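Q: Okay, next protein. This is Major facilitator superfamily (MFS) profile domain-containing protein from Homalodisca liturata. I've checked the sequence twice, so it should be correct. Can you predict the 3D structure?
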Amino acid sequence: PSRGTVTCYILYFFQGCNGGWKEDLKDLLRGMVDFSMFLELHFLLMSLATILLFIWFIVPYFYITDFMKVYNMTEDQGSLIISVIGITNTIGMIGLGWAGDQPWMNVTKTYAVCLVACGLSIIGMPLLIGNYYLLMLTSGLFGIFFASNFSFTPTILVELIPLERFTTAYGLVLLCQGIGNLLGPPLAGWIFDYTQDWDMSFYMAGVWIIVSGIMVAFIPYTKNKRIWGDGMLERDRESSIA
């Protein structure tokens, strides 16, 4: 068909929709920029914990090899440590994913414990870096416990937010992850430039990831509420509609 015919078809389609497509587009855009869930206490705690985690988890991935060179270890040894983290991370995702589906598992509490353990494993890296095999052990533990983020986050979100709002909620969590990934590497590098010592970067990474675990631990022990405004919670809105 000619260009004019195609144009007529397009105009006919949009006119036939009686403007409904505009409303659908507005609803789509409104959902993409809907930050109202940040006004709920539990979702805000989860989001802040995610930002802290993704700011600091990157420290071992980016800088463990440079740290090991200070102790006269080779790049091959550093590469093996990174491989151990990757392998144990994969194993952790499978194992924790299976455990998260079991009825006896409280996913939120377990996630909080895993984050605290993840932070402790990072703190252990500068303490054990003089012994290559102990460093490999604590790196493997880091890989396993960090995997809890990938295994448990979707399940926790489903508990906090109605299923039909899951896509928006998970998108906001990914936004928080992106913010953390953007801030983490330069921040850790700046700490090294300021102190000329990798220990402080690893200690701070561990401490702040422990803080993120503590924030998640508040979720099952507190009542969810809106921290600003008088609107209904997402869960309550779903119940009222039903």
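A: Here is a summary of the prediction. The chain has a mean pLDDT of 85. The domain at 31-237 is CATH 1.20.1250.20 (Growth Hormone; Chain: A;).
Q: Noted. On to the next one.
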